[in-house]
Design a protein that fits this description.
Layout: H1 15-23, H2 33-36, E1 41-46, E2 52-59, H3 62-81, E3 91-98, E4 107-113, E5 119-126, H4 129-141, E6 148-151, E7 154-158, E8 163-164, H5 165-171, H6 180-196, E9 207-213, E10 218-224, H7 248-257, H8 260-280, H9 282-292, H10 300-314, H11 325-339
Antiparallel strand pairs: 1-2, 2-3, 3-4, 4-5, 5-7, 6-7, 8-9, 9-10
Helix pairs in contact: 4-9, 6-7, 6-8, 9-11, 10-11
Length: 340
């Protein structure tokens, strides 16, 4: 069983990563996280069933509201349309929430169109280098595109749409219309993606299931939504969703509908796709890994343990010479290319 017992450290953005973000046009103006912390009070936020969401709605002094709301609308335009202000003409900020239990206490902004009542969310967070590397690796190596911007020490992320994994397991797995083979196949592929790029802590509360109706059936895609545990933990099991007890229902489902041969086939399919993405973005990926190797992303103890476990896993003693998480990730990706 995978278990994380200590709170992860927050790592600052260094000059090498900052240069990478500018080169990739991820650097843009945004309201600073600290400005949003000047709220007067909070009230609990409940869902439509009256259950506590563990988020709290923040309330500001009247004199602060106009400035904060206008700044947030400009952030949204930078995030969605490279700063074109026409897109925010009919938008207004409906609600600002905070998650007081999150690692960096993120803010969630609900923004709404006054004409048709359509709404969207985005997030304001403390910029953690680990999370930024996680977002970039997701963008480069997964089938999902990720949209975010960074301003000084503030990170702005778009909302990733999908059914929360714990809710999917509770409410959807028993649905008679569920395509069990497709969701089991997707979990196998998700397991490969997280291990290859060393994204940890992918239990059911940290991913969503994107459900897309197809012309004959339904397609499922599992998407990570929490990237704080990118290349931090020292135990190999933390990077494999199959070892989290919260995901046991999906593991059990896979054992019911798949053989070891079909599971191996799906693993190889996903690895081949990742290799293709690596090759198509090689120069960008190399620049990113160079940035990852330029500053610490974990503790010496975690680095020592992970390189030892991966050396045993791959049968490659080169892991034992890795000095940081960037070097470990680079070698883990090279293993994938070697095996393909």
């Amino acid at each position: 069983m995978a278990l994380i017992t200590k709170k992860k450290l927050i790592y600052p953005i260094n000059d090498v990563l900052r240069s990478y973000l500018r080169n990739q046009e991820r650097d843009a103006e945004a309201i600073c996280y600290q400005e949003l912390t000047r709220f007067r009070t909070t009230i609990p936020l409940y869902d439509k069933h009256g259950q506590d969401t563990l988020w709290e709605t923040v309330l500001y002094e009247q004199s602060e509201i106009d400035h904060i709301h206008q700044s947030l609308k400009m952030v949204y335009s930078n995030l969605k349309s490279a700063g074109h202000i026409d897109v925010i003409k009919h938008l207004f900020i409906e609600r600002i929430d905070i998650c007081p239990f999150g690692n960096t206490k993120p803010f969630r902004i609900r923004i709404k169109n006054s004409i048709n009542d359509n709404f969207d969310y985005f997030y304001i967070k403390v910029a953690d280098a680990s999370r930024i590397y996680g977002l970039e690796l997701e963008h480069l190596l997964s089938p999902n595109r990720i949209n975010y911007i960074v301003h000084k020490n503030t990170l702005v992320e778009e909302h990733i749409i999908g059914v929360p994994g714990d809710m999917f397991i509770k409410d959807y797995l028993s649905d008679k219309h569920l395509n069990k083979v497709r969701i089991a196949k997707e979990f196998v592929k998700f397991n490969e993606r997280t291990f290859v790029r060393l994204l940890g802590d992918m239990h059911s509360a940290n991913f969503v299931v994107d459900i897309t109706p197809d012309f004959e059936d339904v397609h499922y895609r599992i998407r990570a939504i929490d990237f704080d545990q990118q290349c931090f933990e020292g135990r190999k099991a933390v990077y494999l969703p199959q070892y989290f007890k919260q995901n046991n229902a999906l593991i059990k489902l896979g054992m019911e509908v798949m053989t070891s041969e079909t599971m191996r086939q799906y693993q190889l399919e996903e690895r081949s796709l990742i290799v293709n993405r690596m090759r198509s973005s090689r120069y960008t990926l190399n620049e990113l890994i160079t940035a990852m190797k330029s500053a610490p992303l974990s503790t010496p103890a975690n680095i020592k343990r992970l390189r030892s476990e991966l050396a045993r896993h791959h049968g490659d003693e080169r892991f034992l010479t890795c000095k940081n998480m960037g070097e470990i990730l680079e070698l883990n990706l090279q293993q994938l290319e070697k095996e393909s």
